[in-house]
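tool_log.txt
---
The assistant was asked to compare two proteins side by side. It first ran the structure predictor on the initial sequence, then on the second. Raw inputs and outputs are pasted verbatim so the downstream comparison step can read them without reformatting.
(1)
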Amino acid sequence: MSRAKKFDFNQIKNYAREFRINPTDSEKLLWKELRGRKLSGYKFLRQHPILYKGNLKRYNYFIADFYCYEMKAVIEIDGPVHEETAEYDAYRDEEMKDLGLHILRIKNEELNNIEKVLSQNRKLSKFNII
């Protein structure tokens, strides 16, 4: 009988760090608008681990593209790969909603006009940003 692998939060932090080192172009673009509390004074973290349904031996986790603790909000940037992972994305969204988080998904192509994305009340007003 094999023993369960011990939980290692440092490993999860290293995964998140790797994602921060190699952001997509869309993530870079949105990060310029979010960093330094530029968006209505809210602090966002990028590539932030979110733990769920775990115990001290085993945690499940997601790494959110952008996370704001003050608003309990997650912003996910959806590139072409998300067309193939829609079912998993829906599962992730439900798990995060169960944690009391609000999720906003933005498609890569929407960020071609970043000003429009930032001014769209119907998306960002869900978080009471605008």
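(2)
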Amino acid sequence: MIGCPTYVGMKYCLDDFLEGIKSIDFDNYTLLLVDNSDTDSYYNIIKEKKINVLRFNPEDKNKINRLIDSRNKIIEYAISKNCDFILMLDQDVIVPPNIINKLLSSKKDLISGVYLNYFYSSGKLKFLPVAWLDITEEEFEQIKSKQIKFPEYVKSAKDLSRHMTLEEYESNKTYKVKHPSAGCLLISKNIFEKIKYENLDLKSMGFKTEKQALDDLGFRKRANELGFDFYIDTSVKCKHLIDGKYIKDEKGNLHHPIRYNEDEKINPQ
């Protein structure tokens, strides 16, 4: 099954998204979009294109919660259709034709393709892979030697991660990762029959912040608790249509529309 939450703010990339889906060289799949917009206008546009779309307008106006609930609607639908896998997408992620065959061939329960996004790194705006790997104990000790002050929740290398490098992105290899490119994630039935997406309280996890967790953080945490690891196949490169998505404020900073009311720069990690 291919599932994708959406809302009217993603109208700009709908046609590109659907063209990517049509190009997939795998016949045995069901497509479902879940529209959580405030009105029916975008839902009607999708319906006119003869696309399977579920209208979902929850009372909860929290943007992260609406996204999480939409992903869970996709999981419920996949279970009802007795699907073996879900390819969970974001609508601005345009997939290559081989994505399903390539990810299935890995025989992993959780594996994603990869795409790029804007991040602030060392004070500069950079285009980097949406992927994070574990820090090794040796790397952790090297960081400690620089007398960097860690947040209170950082006790060991397990509490940190690093961006996938552009060299790793270009390698066309498969990596075990801490955080995958969640907008193109293949999930097996072994996972989605056991856990759902959920909103985590970052403060309860030791983070000193008023910000909300990303929509997939709870899912990743529960999967890890069950003993499942995440992987990325960097040969499965997706396009990321982010032009037109981010909101620029009066100072020129870019903000993700889902979290704009929290006044957060575009690097969510």
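---
observation on (2): Confidence is low (pLDDT under 50) at residues 262-269. The first strand starts at residue 2 and ends at 6.
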